[in-house]
Amino acid sequence: MGVDGGLADPKGRAELATEKNTYSSKKKKRRQKKPTSTPSAVQRLFETCKEVFAHGGRGFIPSADDVERLRSVLETLKLVDVGVSPNLPFFHHVVTDGPPPVTYLHLYACPNFSIGIFCLPQAAVIPLHNHPGMTVFSKLLFGSMHIKSYDWVNDPEGSNEKIKSSNGTCLAKVNTDAIFKAPCETSVLYPTTGGNMHCFTAVTSCAVLDVLGPPYNDDEGRACSYYKEYVFSSIPGKAIGVSGESKEYAWLEESESKPDDLVVRGAEYRGPKIVGC
Q: What does this protein need as cofactor (predicted)?
């Protein structure tokens, strides 16, 4: 009868139950297993910076291979990767007596490097300033920007001192003077070359991501200085060591403080978060 049939072969029933439980357990594990997530572009940038600037400090210059490695990571960055949109309010033109304010989005900072995004509405200006003892990577994320940069001209007689005029200004040579439109190549400047002193002017609303290694630090001698420019011919006398046309040079006077018309506001970064910082 059915009762006898139902009670027959208890060992076989136990083995069948074990097989079912094993199959069910494997199936459950397969359902629970998730594919490994790909790190965000911002996370890859952070990890690369950690490696490139691992032994950083004042005047530290990454190897040529490391410079290209970090540059290649920045080259792949798109606006959507950093969660920034041209429609954000701080890209809109604000009517003011001077240049419109600049907004800074802080992504990360440690003693070895920092990552941040400067957001400039049209006509905004970050005046001529320096990056003492730093290597800086600048990636234009969108828009058009005029960049003018200089390097100091040293005394050719071997003193390694800047060439100074009678009124105390120092001679600098133009490294870059051009308009850049995204997408374009990431620029790199070094402690003494590559346009260590530069000025940004927004031709259109634009955003630029900066990696500084190491970052500014007043206590370690890396305070930011600003400069006033004077045309080469405006100061009497001929500077030694000048070759080429005079328009390639300018006299720079260090300002005692940040320009009054420069307003940089901080805003919360709402893009992809960095893990492990």
A: Fe(2+)
258 with 228: CB under 8 angstroms?
no
In angstroms, rounded to a whole number, what is the distance separating the alpha carbons of residues 165 and 174?
A: 17
Cα Rg of the chain, angstroms: 29
> What is the pTM (predicted TM-score) of this model?
0.82
